[in-house]
Amino acid sequence: MAQQKIISRPSLGAFMNKYGIVVIFIGLCVILSIVSPAFLSIRNITNVIRQVSIIGIVSMGVTFCIITTGIDLSSGSMIALISVVVASMSQNAVSDSQPISIVMPILFAILISLALGAILGTINGSLTAFGKIPPFIATLGMMTAAKGAAALYTQGRPVGNLKDAFTFIGTGSFIGIPIPIWIYIVMAVLSHILLSKTKFGRHVFAIGGNEQAARICGINVEKTLVKVYAYAGFLTAVSAIMLTARTSAGNPTYGLAYELDAIASTVIGGTSLSGGIGSIPFCVIGALIIGVLNNGMDLLGVNAYWQQIVKGFIIVIAVLIDARKQKRK
Amino acid sequence: MSNENVLEMRNVHKSFPGVKALKGVDLTIKKGSVHALMGENGAGKSTLMKILYGIFHPEEGEVIFKGQPYSVKSPIDAINRGISMIPQEISPCPNLTVASNVFLGKEITANGVKLLNQKQMVKETQALFDDLGIDIDPSVMMSEISIANAQLVAIATAVSYNADLVIMDEPTSALTEKEIDKLYDIIRDLRDKKKIAVVYISHKLDEIFTICDEVSVLRDGEYIGSDSIENFDKDRLISMMVGRTMDEFFHKEEAVIGDVLLEVKDMSLSRKFKNVSFQLKQGEVLGVAGLMGAGRTEVMEALFGYRPADSGEIFIKGEKVEIKEPIDAIKHGIAFVTEDRKLTGIFPELSIKDNMIMPDIENYLKGGLLDSKKIKENCQTQREAIAIKTPTLEQLIKNLSGGNQQKVLISRWLLTTPEILILDEPTRGIDVGAKSEIHRLIGELAKMGKSIIMISSEMPEILSMSDRIMVMHEGKCSGEISRKDATQEKILALATGEQL
């Protein structure tokens, strides 16, 4: 068979367009390891990834939403709600000292919490897909309501006294690597396969790229959107469980502004706010950039207020780059 | 330049990628006359008018307006020079009052301060409406008035600029008989009292003979001729509009035509089309002709379940089928290559491969995951079969030329192995080479026994490719012509609502 040989010489511009964020990430790591020798230690790196894992998992769900030209603002509040729910069900014993205490096998507690996340996500998705409410508003409603529900459930108090088997999820490790990092890896692989290797994933891209063409191709746009938000809710629940286990408590104040950090990671990872473009590996890089930056500034003793300002700049620059790409079309 | 003429255009040329839209067009408009500009879809009428209105810029040619050389960069420029236009599709701001819409862009502000003087605008709009005999309250919201009234507001707005030349592009498309008479009164007033010249574009021959003084005809981007209306009758006008020779046409090979495969009975969709019925046989190419807005695309969208019809029945191989969504149509072996590639066709950010597999992605699953080997094989075979020019199938579709994008979209649907293929303007906006390749492909598909419905606004394409031609006019089937009886004149007559 005559194989057609294609010699393509991609320009530097095209390469930077696609992999620029990876180059920035590597550059950032190189600079930090030079200015702060502590950065490259295994302990520090493990620490960074573990810190990133919570937002990192949420941001993968946000990536799905943004690819369909949607958004999810409710993840932070959902973390608060699911955190108190899972904590209330993972009690060592029934106790009056806790606002709510239920004793059951932790596997059940976890499954119920994951289902709760998926159900809340389904509500988000249904409001958007069938109610035709813009996702910004639908998830804003959920954000406000879930926050209220979390405080209502525990009268605004934290929930402690958790089983060791449960807190192991956040504090334990397996072959030297913390459990949260394992979960992050598993969720990233799962999400990547879902987005790039399944029919569902292709439909997500199709809807974000051209909704009308997607309908012509026989795609059930509404059903796909509901699935997208349900999956985002599921991932948020995974994060909530990890955070609760890590801190050995559920708390209705958890998750404050996490949705914004998740959106920032997604956007820094090159997912286009105008839809149809995005990937899980780049989303992971985006989350790692924020994590490494936070860590580096901590190591260098940069004032926390300055850290926020720097983060703000980076988010805006990432979106500016995206806007320029869009304009060139 | 004679004093009688308000506008003279000479030897105007304009090209778009892949098409020469205007090839040396002349147009002379007398002061205070109503001048019809005639031609089929794509003859260049709108392009010529958009040049006058500053939306397009000619590559070559001379324009003299009121005795001065005329060259404008934007509609605002054109309005300031004295030319205004009522576009075919008006787009008012529904959230503002009628008066605010009339004064959009030239709002009256109170002295000294930049605050709107709403009262004055309403008053002046009222005066303008009184002058024209329009009975609409200027202070109501635009969203509260009918489409026909919105059209009248657009006409009043165009006049309010004190223009010397007003262009009206299909101004009656949204109007009823009574309102059309109103429009005629307004036009006659403009002509006789204000000495304003009007360029009137319409496909309705009756209108032309009622209101126009002179006629110019364009065809395929060329100037054919002008004359005063008294020297025309309908037959002469139609033959000037279509009169091209047949030798430039592609000749489709004869295919064996089998039994009736698809039958549509009495399909209606409110305000779009009414009681449309037709049959399609195996191996047949059914051409669907008509002017823009005749409802051709809407009928096909209904058949495909994209915008389902209100009533009507669809039979495939004699059995009644329910098509509520595109997926139902796909399952019944129908494929639909839509008219607007950008709007309803391509996924710009996806690869050629992903664009191809979208409607029948189920067939590429292996254990729930996409089988990239099978995808590659099928797409590669398809790509070779219809010669898509691209270095790799991973290329994003947005980087391809229009013709190659169209080939990818046709491939997309051929991969679903359809029995019925609907092609809506399959060669619009693509270059000559790709066009003839697509024509050859349509012929081959028919020979393979596929049944094809082809909507086309291009006469040569319809005449050369179709075994049978259905003509639509204002949402209704106005007639059917067999291949051997078909002529350009007959099709155009049916398309403009004339009887054969």
Automatic annotation (TrEMBL), chain A:
- Its chief place of residence is membrane
**Which superkingdom is the protein from?**
Bacteria
Alphabetical list of Pfam families matching this protein:
BPD_transp_2 (PF02653)
Where is it localised? Cell membrane
What are its GO cellular component terms?
Answer: plasma membrane
Q: Which residues cross the membrane?
A: 19-40, 52-71, 106-127, 133-153, 165-195, 228-245, 266-293, 305-323
Query: What is the topology of this protein in the membrane according to its UniProt annotation?
Result: Multi-pass membrane protein
Q: Does the keyword Transmembrane apply?
A: yes
> Which keywords does UniProt give here?
Cell membrane, Membrane, Transmembrane, Transmembrane helix
Annotated GO MF terms: transmembrane transporter activity
What is the protein named? Answer: ABC transporter permease
Give the classification, highest ranks.
Bacteria, Pseudomonadati, Spirochaetota, Spirochaetia, Spirochaetales
TrEMBL record, chain B:
Which membrane topology describes this protein?
Peripheral membrane protein
Lineage top rank: taxon: Bacteria
Record keywords, A-Z: ATP-binding, Cell membrane, Membrane, Nucleotide-binding, Repeat, Sugar transport, Translocase, Transport
Q: What is its EC number?
A: 7.5.2.11
Q: Where in the cell is it found?
A: Cell inner membrane; Cell membrane
GO biological process entries? monosaccharide transmembrane transport
Against Pfam families, the record matches this protein to:
ABC_tran (PF00005)
GO molecular function annotation:
ABC-type carbohydrate transporter activity; ATP binding; ATP hydrolysis activity
Known catalysed reaction(s)? D-galactose(out) + ATP + H2O = D-galactose(in) + ADP + phosphate + H(+)
One Gene Ontology cellular component annotation held by this UniProt entry? plasma membrane
Q: Which InterPro entries match?
A: AAA+_ATPase, ABC_carbohydrate_import_ATPase, ABC_transporter-like_ATP-bd, ABC_transporter-like_CS, P-loop_NTPase
Q: Where is the ABC transporter domain?
A: 7-245, 255-499
Q: Which PANTHER family does its entry note? A: CARBOHYDRATE TRANSPORT ATP-BINDING PROTEIN MG119-RELATED, GALACTOSE_METHYL GALACTOSIDE IMPORT ATP-BINDING PROTEIN MGLA
Q: Which family does the entry's similarity section mention?
A: Belongs to the ABC transporter superfamily.
Job of this protein: Part of an ABC transporter complex involved in carbohydrate import. Could be involved in ribose, galactose and/or methyl galactoside import. Responsible for energy coupling to the transport system.
* Protein name as catalogued: Ribose/galactose/methyl galactoside import ATP-binding protein
> What species was this sequence derived from?
Candidatus Thalassospirochaeta sargassi
